[in-house]
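User: Run a structure prediction on this.
Assistant: Running it now.
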Amino acid sequence: MSKSWFLNQLSKGNSISKHLQQLPLSSKFLSAYSEDTMAYQIRRITHAMIRLGYTESSTKDRWRILRLAGLSKERITQEAQIFLNIICEKKTYAH
């Protein structure tokens, strides 16, 4: 979950986000538990693979995985691209 998602769950999230420097425990919580872009993209790819059934044929169409994950190849992080490559290569060679 992103930092903004956590803050949106609070009734006074906007106020808290503006005063995080005065709220060290809240700031520490957000730093510890909010995910970065890479983790978000990998989570979305993982969920897309699960929804596709994670079959050999589902890994051949990378565009389908990215589309279902709501990601584009232009904006995917390098780490998420490596993760996608590993998944597709392993499943392609597994029988």
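Helices lie at 3-8, 13-18, 24-33, 37-52, 56-60, 62-69, 78-93.
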